Amino acid sequence: MNDRRNAAFEEFVQPRTGERCYRLRHSSGLTIFVDPKPGYQSCYAVFAARYGSIDTAFRTADGRETEVPAGIAHYLEHKLFESEDGDAFARYAKTGASANAFTSFDRTAYLFSCTENLEPSLEILLDFVQKPYFTEETVQKEQGIIGQEIRMCEDNPGRRVLFNLLRALYKTHPVRIEIAGTVESIADITPELLYGCYHAFYNLNNMALAVTGNVTPEQVLAVADRLLKPAEGGRVERAMVEEPAEAAEPRVECRMPVASPLFYLGFKVPVPGGRCQTPEELAAADVLLEVLAGQASPLYARLMEQGLINASFGAEYFEGPGYAAWMFGGESADPDAVAEAIHTEVARLKRDGIESAAFDAARNALYGRLVASLNDVENCGDILIGDFFYEREPFALIEAAASLSMEAVTRMLRDGFRRESAALSVVLPSE
Fold first, then answer.
1. Containing structural domain, residue 395
2. Residues belonging to the active site
3. pLDDT tens profile 322-376
4. b/e map of 229-254 (b: 16 or more CB within 10 Å)?
């Protein structure tokens, strides 16, 4: 390791796996992660802003409070690829990199994968994300494109059953709103609003870069030094909303042209102060879901035997800044019976406790999945960005899984899954 790296980067080594990464707070304000993987041929880079669909109300560094139309973060992601001279995809075509972007509830990310020409591809990434170009004409043109995308989402039964659930669970938190917004909300988006949101959230102090694979810290630092200038201003603050503990409504249904009913059962988890879940909470949630409804669980076996679920059935812990929920979903001829069976199994586990063998098997499986994920450069990059935005140390979930206690899982079982916080969303076949 040369002196420059020693002076610039902080080294992290995951003690159980030996996974090594480097973190740098660049002079521009940007936080940079590099995860070198000797022997790999590919590279992955992701440049992300702490800015997602939930950020419809916020306070800038100067104390100014702002509200913007739903869907503007996603809209901005679309427009940022364009410039006066063309678009970023055309530039990537010359380096051979495969580029993409996405907007989630709490972040916007721009990314590429490559097997060669890392440095010129990284230059493109850092360059176009820092050069917004919006005109009245191009913004209006995009409204038609994104409006069509929104209408397609509305026609997607799987997406409809999910967002119906979120609206049934949440009364005020903006996680209840579609990431792309609505046709009505995006009609209010102007170049001025886009520039305002860009300058608020695409401040390098509010962003992070992760590069993984066939790369060295020196390569990334050299590009960053050429392309990045010190950011002005500070971190933007999300507006926090008070969300009641109970669900907004217990059941919601609609009809669509589906072959069999779709359902989502959700249990809202209180997350005060807009915080994110800790690594221990995330590990405990994963293990609890496996014990409760995994393919080796008694509940899963009974529901399959009764013909109430099929292979589409699954469970997840849905979480982010200020929100968290247990979710169970899939296809079923009788969604209400599935929901009642889940309620009954939760009550049984609360009464009888979790078997130690089931706990050990679920914890070991989680640890194995997390370790295996380190072999994928894209997973590693996304994990590093998520850990940073959620204020966790790199790869903290691995250690949390390895040291997870039965008490932590029991605590999540005890404190969650209250009927008054539950909602069932169903999509029925059209009559």
1. 251-429
2. 77
3. 899 999 999 999 999 999 999 999 999 999 999 999 999 999 999 999 999 999 9
4. eebeeeebebeebebeebbbeeebee
